[in-house]
Design brief:
Blueprint lengths: L3 E4 L5 H7 L7 H18 L12 H6 L21 H9 L11 E6 L7 H13 L4 E6 L6 H4 L3 H13 L12
Parallel strand pairs: 1-2, 2-3
């Protein structure tokens, strides 16, 4: 692996799950919850109606066919983020604990409406602790999409990958503390 660019990834899933209940979450975050609930229902055999509210069940089913669903309320059933089986799946799907073979360029806005910046910081720290080379860059006032599409970030990410393919070493912000 020459390297990978992460633009506001869902890293620490256990931290993200309850965050979606908070005041800064909204339709974009809730839509992600529907995608995860529907996918996990299929992959892990969990009945979908035990994950999402009855009102959101048709919308969750719609995510199987389209990606433009727009929930107008928090879609998950009460207490679902504390269920032991789901917490185990959150941990299992959180990408930390083992070093990644290539360096990572990790881009995160601190005004992200889908991924809490605290989660991104924890994920980057865990990746560093596992021995992964991480170039973590946090952007003030930047939302989720802006993590890659704002300013010159997309061009910078392409150049960063070009440098990896050219054999240049990546900056490691882990070493900088």
């Amino acid at each position: 692996i020459a390297g990978a660019v992460l633009a506001a990834p869902a890293g620490d899933l256990r931290a993200i799950a309850p965050w979606a209940l908070g005041p800064t979450a909204g339709p974009a975050s809730w839509r992600n919850d529907l995608y995860v609930a529907t996918a996990w229902s299929e992959i892990y055999g969990i009945p979908l109606d035990t994950l999402v509210t009855p009102a959101m069940l048709p919308l969750a089913e719609a995510t199987r066919e389209r990606c433009d669903v727009q929930p107008d309320a928090y879609p998950l059933r009460d207490g679902v983020t504390e269920r032991a089986d789901l917490v185990a799946f959150l941990d299992r799907n959180t990408p930390v604990g083992v070093p990644i073979a290539g360096p990572l360029l990790y881009l995160q806005g601190d005004a992200d409406e889908q991924i809490p910046v605290e989660s991104a910081r924890a994920t980057a720290a865990a990746l560093c602790a596992a021995g992964t080379v991480v170039d973590y860059r946090e952007y003030p006032g930047v939302n989720h999409a802006g993590s890659i599409y704002g300013g010159d970030r997309l061009a910078m990410a392409i150049d960063w990958m070009g440098d990896r393919f050219a054999g240049q070493a990546a900056i490691d912000t882990c070493a900088q503390g």
